[in-house]
């Protein structure tokens, strides 16, 4: 069996892992790399055409954005994910199956759990040809909004684990504390605060945290954000009770000349790509708080550069320390940290056997034989 790191190792984006067995090959995720001239996973046409499945951990573009490109390249298999993830995708895959309906082919066993990152997000454990492989997806056990099934007691030959925040020394609780301090400073100058958030994920969590800190401030959101909140109120599977109980009374965000005099305002466009939202953000006169990765060349990047937006991270991934703690409560023969430039492919180089394919690791019968050196 061969595992190829087609993207996502040594970089924040392009998450894509190829598992190639004797009779079956599949991908776990197929993301794009924002700001890259060639943003697609490093896969050959042959590898793409041989795929039977793509298992998605969640809908974010750095995990699912390459589906249309893969279909153009001849992918003829089935996209498998939670029903929520399939619904959230920007373009519908030609062939898709929710995990609830999915029947694995002979020889493949699939186990999954909620990863706490957003609605529909999962980790996976696969068993194929006597090997056990664990993919954490984007993973956090510390979400106030989303439920997680912690990965515990799993034995795996290989674990590909979220380590997106690398050597960040703060705990999740400390990052949240710093975020609340940052928000407090902005609110001291302006009565209202703008929060650009992804369509699915940390927005609801952020709303809950800020609402708990400032329960008297009115909450505003754009249409999509209001829909998400209505969904969360009905949901019993992906959200925590704290979110369902703790958030209500959101009003539509007025898009007029002036921002609301007081309030917490959420827009579902983390990079402020829509010109009207960038213009709106400028009217907040510096009271804009960015809470996730800022991509170059976007409205969010421009505002940040001009000192009109502050950045405080809301943790929705693992740090190295959290990833190491996860290793301590499971039994993984080999670990590959992903989603971070802090752990480049070079760092993971093992005893080379198959020099022809520098991104790949070969798992042989006699035990794991690592081989992972960078592609040139
Ligand atoms: Zn994500
Ligand atoms: Zn991600």
What labels describe this entry?
Rossmann fold; eight-stranded mixed β-sheet; five-stranded mixed β-sheet; 19 strands; globular; disordered C terminus; binds zinc ion
List the helices and strands and how they pair.
Layout: E1 2-7, E2 16-20, E3 25-28, H1 45-49, E4 53-55, H2 61-64, H3 67-72, E5 78-81, H4 83-88, E6 96-98, E7 108-114, E8 122-128, E9 131-135, E10 155-162, H5 172-189, E11 192-196, H6 202-213, E12 219-221, H7 223-234, H8 241-246, E13 250-252, E14 263-267, H9 275-282, E15 289-290, H10 299-305, E16 310-311, H11 320-328, E17 331-338, E18 360-364, E19 367-369
Parallel strand pairs: 3-4, 4-5, 5-6, 9-10, 10-17, 11-14, 12-13, 12-14, 15-16
Antiparallel strand pairs: 1-2, 1-18, 2-3, 7-8, 8-9, 18-19
This protein binds zinc ion (2 copies).
The site of one zinc ion (ZN) has 6 residues, from helix 2.
Number of strands: 19
Tell me the series of helices and strands, N- to C-terminal. Answer: EEEHEHHEHEEEEEHEHEHHEEHEHEHEEE
Total tally of structural domains: 2
In this entry the ligands are:
zinc ion
Give the % helix: 10-25%
Which CATH class of the largest domain applies here?
Alpha Beta
Low-confidence stretches: 366-376
Structural class: alpha/beta
Using only CA atoms, what is the Rg?
Answer: 21 Å
What does the main sheet amount to? 8 strands, mixed
CATH superfamily of the largest domain: Ribonuclease Z/Hydroxyacylglutathione hydrolase-like
Mean pLDDT: 92
How far the N terminus sits from the C terminus, by CA atoms, comes to 23 Å
CATH architecture of the largest domain: 4-Layer Sandwich
What is the 3D form?
A: globular
Strand content: 15-25%
Order of strands side by side in the largest beta sheet? 6-5-4-3-2-1-18-19
